[in-house]
Amino acid sequence: MTFARPSGRGPTRTVPVTGEIDLHNAHEIVDSVTGAVNHGARNVVVDLDAVQFMGAAALGALVRSRNLCRPRGASVSVRCSDSRHRHLFAVTGLEAFLEDGAAGTVTSRSG
User: Fold this and answer.
1) Which pTM was predicted?
2) Domain 2-108: which CATH class?
3) CA distance to 19, 52, 88, per residue, from 2 (Å)
């Protein structure tokens, strides 16, 4: 898995992820998301469109990222257009925790 530096200006930053996300590297998602918030982001988009594989550890890292950022007034959303990856959100019950947005984006629910 590789990350590009978070991109974007102002309160929204995008964290592009490529490759495979597994137990050995999923923590890098948490590090990148919280790092973006530490540098002023209030909305972080994790772009999974170039990810070939993601397991349960990736979902756990996304949930952990959201839970760490929420008390700081920041939101985490996931850009995920691959139907295989979106299916993971569905079969794990995370669509109740993460809601579908427009154009293939799954975003965290507030409140």
Assistant:
1) 0.81
2) alpha beta
3) 6, 12, 21
